[in-house]
């Protein structure tokens, strides 16, 4: 019909059949709509054909592995002593010994970084493996490398650590850092066939420098280096037959405190604590281990600047306890008496000390905290079958970073973990 043509008038009787038919059809439609609609789930290919992205599940699917990841060897599952598996991660990209060797002209370069693959980085942010005690895996190097001695940066965004390339405490070793948010690992300072080792706690100063020990010029001595890996400066010169290790810095960055020990077999070692003015040559003995039959080690300077924590054993005993002393070597205080208490460092307000211990008859060390003047300890980590040690507080005192490895094998490589304080 032409759109301009008017329809002819028809009598009402001719419309009655049509109206009855419309009423019947309308009833059928209403009845049909009242029934529950029949639906089905579209396949992924059908959804994509519609030009929309599939809706993600509540638990995001694991990202597809890249060709590089497929060729990597998967790390063994982490289990506790009962044999129950703990969620584990695939091996992160980690520097190998050969990859990290540089010429002497490149020693201070920080151009080499080891970023996680995009899929791995996402896994770091949203799906870090957790233990039963709530600790999260921050960094697990490729075996046999061992990540140890974590210490927070002054802003709390990164963690300094020592990477031993040939196993637990087996050098060569260098200084590395990991970005806590992204998981990116960057080399700070490393030299071929040499050891550069930091101490947990007060080793990364707010002045931008890091204290560490190194055998880069013969016997181990104390050095500092910029957080960018540049400008290494020697801070101590050990006497003949001695070596200097385990340094930390005063809050103002002007002094280092360290352990001096004799170059003999372990059974004959007797450490003592010294402090030394960086670049000034002035040095002062704070504890006389050998003179009193003690072995004093691992000094850590309080953020308040007034005291130094360290561990002590009598003779060749296996029992270590935590002590503090003022910065002039007086007012010595006993903090713990539980035996096998080691690796002491401070909370940022100087009110508490975090350390590793087998307190309570534990088969392997866990992380504890205790008031700086002594008192009742609080257990932080509780993972059977793991040896937790070398802890450090974050600048806001909310988290503790530590190293952990299998307790049934003291030489097994360590990884870096983090837990709420």
Write the layout of secondary structure elements.
Blueprint (H helix, E strand, L loop, with lengths): L15 H19 L9 H6 L17 H4 L7 E2 L5 E2 L26 E2 L3 H9 L9 E4 L6 E7 L5 E7 L8 E7 L5 E5 L6 E2 L11 E6 L6 E6 L6 E2 L7 E8 L5 E8 L9 E6 L5 E3 L3 H4 L1 E8 L5 E8 L6 E6 L6 E2 L7 E5 L5 E6 L8 E6 L6 E2 L6 E8 L5 E8 L8 E6 L1
Antiparallel strand pairs: 1-2, 3-8, 4-27, 5-6, 6-7, 7-8, 9-10, 10-11, 11-12, 13-14, 14-15, 15-16, 17-18, 18-19, 19-20, 21-22, 22-23, 23-24, 25-26, 26-27
Number of helices: 5
Number of strand elements: 27
What is the alpha-carbon Rg in Å? 32 Å
Using the alpha-carbon principal axes, give the shape.
globular
Query: Which structural class best describes the helix and strand composition?
Result: mainly beta
Termini separation comes to: 84 Å
> Into which percentage range does the β-strand content fall?
25-35%
Q: What percent of residues adopt helix (DSSP H or I)?
A: under 10%
Architecture overview:
With 421 residues, the chain is mainly β. Helices cover 10% and strands 34% of the residues. The protein is built from five helices and 27 strands. It has helices at residues 16-34, 44-49, 67-70, 118-126, 289-292; strands at 78-79, 85-86, 113-114, 136-139, 146-152, 158-164, 173-179, 185-189, 196-197, 209-214, 221-226, 233-234, 242-249, 255-262, 272-277, 283-285, 294-301, 307-314, 321-326, 333-334, 342-346, 352-357, 366-371, 378-379, 386-393, 399-406, 415-420. It has a five-stranded antiparallel β-sheet with strand order 3-8-7-6-5, with no helix packed on it. A four-stranded antiparallel β-sheet has the order 4-27-26-25, with no helix packed on it. The longest helix has 19 residues, at 16-34. The chain starts with 15 loop residues before the first helix and ends with a strand.
């Amino acid at each position: 019909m032409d759109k301009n043509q008017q329809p002819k008038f028809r009598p009402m009787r001719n419309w009655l059949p049509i109206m009855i038919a419309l009423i019947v059809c309308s009833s059928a439609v209403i009845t049909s709509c009242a029934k529950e609609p029949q639906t089905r789930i579209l396949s992924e290919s059908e959804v994509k054909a519609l030009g929309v992205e599939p809706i993600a599940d509540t638990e995001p699917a694991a990202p597809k592995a890249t060709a590089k990841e497929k060729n990597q060897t998967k790390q063994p599952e982490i289990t506790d002593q009962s044999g129950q598996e703990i969620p584990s991660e695939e091996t992160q990209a980690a520097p190998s010994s050969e990859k990290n060797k540089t010429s002497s002209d490149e020693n201070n370069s920080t151009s080499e970084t080891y970023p996680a693959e995009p899929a791995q980085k996402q896994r770091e942010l949203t799906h870090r493996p957790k233990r039963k005690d709530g600790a999260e895996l921050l960094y697990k190097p490729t075996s046999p490398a061992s990540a140890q001695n974590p210490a927070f940066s002054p802003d709390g965004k990164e963690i300094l650590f020592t990477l031993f390339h040939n196993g637990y405490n087996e050098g060569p070793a260098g200084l590395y850092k990991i970005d806590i948010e992204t998981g990116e690992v960057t080399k700070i300072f490393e030299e071929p066939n040499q050891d550069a080792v930091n101490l947990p706690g007060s080793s990364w100063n707010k002045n931008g420098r890091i204290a560490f020990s190194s055998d880069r010029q013969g016997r181990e001595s104390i050095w500092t280096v910029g957080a960018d890996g540049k400008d290494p400066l020697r801070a101590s010169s050990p006497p003949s037959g001695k070596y200097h290790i385990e340094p930390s810095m005063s809050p103002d960055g002007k002094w280092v405190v360290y352990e001096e020990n004799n170059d003999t077999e372990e059974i004959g070692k007797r450490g003592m604590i010294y402090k030394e003015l960086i670049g000034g040559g002035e040095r002062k003995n704070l504890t006389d281990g050998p003179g009193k039959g003690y072995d004093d080690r691992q000094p850590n300077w309080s953020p308040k600047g007034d005291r130094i924590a360290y561990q002590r054993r009598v003779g060749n005993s296996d029992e270590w306890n935590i002590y503090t002393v003022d910065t002039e070597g007086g007012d010595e205080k006993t903090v713990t008496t539980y035996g096998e208490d080691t690796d002491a460092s401070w909370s940022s307000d100087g009110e508490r000390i975090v350390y590793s211990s087998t307190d309570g008859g534990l088969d392997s060390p866990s992380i504890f905290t205790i008031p700086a003047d002594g008192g009742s300890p609080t257990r932080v980590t509780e993972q059977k079958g793991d040896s937790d040690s070398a802890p450090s507080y974050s600048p806001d005192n909310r988290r503790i970073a530590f190293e952990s490895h299998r307790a049934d094998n003291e030489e097994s490589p360590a990884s870096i973990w983090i837990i709420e304080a």
